[in-house]
Design a protein that fits this description.
Length: about 325
Amino acid sequence: MDKVRIGVIGTGYMGKNHVRVYSEIKGVELVAFSDIKEQLVSQLSKHYDIKGYVNYLDLLEKEDIDAVSVAVPTPIHKKVIMDVFSYNKHVLVEKPITVNLEEANSLIKSSEQKNLIFMVGHVERFNPAILKMKELLKNDYFGEIVSLSARRVGPFITRARDTGVIIDLAIHDIDIMRFLTEKSINRVHALGRKKLTQYEDYAKVLLEFKGGILGSIEVNRLTPTKIRDLSITCTQGFATLDYITQDISVYGKILDTDFKDYDELILKFGNPEIGKPFVKKQEPLKLELEHFVSCIRAHKKPLVNGREGLKNLEIALRAQKSVNDNYIKIE
């Protein structure tokens, strides 16, 4: 395979970035895209000098492509992806995989039957800071994970009014916590309230992982500034991570316990040393799309395949249900 030939279906908030990044990746030919908005199709076609379609079926019928990025509203994920699969094309779909588990299972089954690559776009998995944190944990830099705490808050964005913050935002952190701990989730509890839309606009999610690790997630679309961070408490240290700046701070543990109170601790040991591991900063979406392309070339399973997307959706849906039902135990 010389160049991997790609199409993009849906060029809204995320889809237009797929178009931009694919146009920059070596070994990729961005062939065409589609969007229901004619004016947007005209603008992007001129800007990138590629074909644009209003009907995505025309793209699938007329263009010789290997794969498609699907970035349409979640309620029509299943229909669009099934149509793409019918043309035997590989798919990367923006998270969440679908609106429910039945549709997700249907897509997974179809992709496996046709032996097609099916990847779900949980882009934070490709954030260089997360990849570095994974490396540090693998090398036992902090000891064992005790707990994780995430904040994903910011101002209201109109494009997200058709779903709640658990499915829109917390699902990112559910995925990352599963990735870092490599543990299944036994229990989930969530509280949330509506403020701006018919769905929960702010929520707190508590996860219990196998082995006793705890995860807490705070999400909202009410905070005037955008914050994306993660804190990890381990048996041999503590670390914080900023998704936006891609910075990591590491605090070493003071092993000597020969002190009476906190004041004596400070006098005896001073403040803990803070380490700043080097992180090569890159655009997560570019790393994600490059991974998708490499999976197509080698016909290998993506880091976030359909089944991973299904597991994230299952936990997020249970958390969303818990907002009303108080407590759900995952069998």
